[in-house]
Amino acid sequence: AVFKRCPCDFQVEAALALLQCEYVILVAPTGSDKTLPLWIPSLFNSSGITAIITALKVVGIKVVSVTTSNASADLYKDIAACKYHIVIIPPERAKSDAQF
Q1: What is the pLDDT of residues 35-80, one digit of tens each?
Q2: What is the distance between the alpha carbons of residues 22 and 37, in angstroms, rounded to a whole number?
Q3: Three-state SS string across 25-36, please?
Q4: Residue 91 resides in a domain
Q5: Could you tell me if residue 57 is inside a domain?
Q6: Which residues are CB-neighbours of 93 under 8 A, at least 6 positions away?
Q7: What's the domain range around 69?
Q8: DSSP state for residue 11 in the 8-state scheme
Q9: Is 50 within the bounds of a domain?
């Protein structure tokens, strides 16, 4: 298993709807791994692209995605100073990056 866990019924239901190109609104408690259904379709379409479109800027939420090209001491200082409300970072980078 790629995700090393079995998805819950609501996650499977949402992923199946996404695979059928349906719109999905998913409401679930904090910590219930609502993002898993977003990743499942990529397992079935290795040549496609998964795009997550969200209106974070419109509602005034500051977001940064930490990548190889932008990871710097200044960026980590900004993160530590709470300049961003959401920080997107792959787990392998978070684990291996001493600054994070």
Answers
A1: 888 888 888 777 776 767 666 677 678 888 898 889 899 999 999 9
A2: 13
A3: CCCCCCCCCCCH
A4: yes
A5: no
A6: 66, 71, 100
A7: 63-96
A8: H
A9: no
Spatial contact of 35 and 26, defined as CB atoms under 8 Å apart: no
Radius of gyration of the chain (CA): 16
CA angle 12, 40, 30 (to 5 degrees): 65
In this predicted model, which residue has the larger pLDDT, 52 or 92? 92
What does the pLDDT look like over 14-43, one tens digit per residue? 999 988 988 888 888 878 888 888 888 888
- Provide the number of structural domains found in the chain: 2
The structure's pTM equals 0.52
Identify whether 70 is part of a domain. Answer: yes
Please give the Cα distance from 96 to 71 (Å, whole number).
Answer: 12
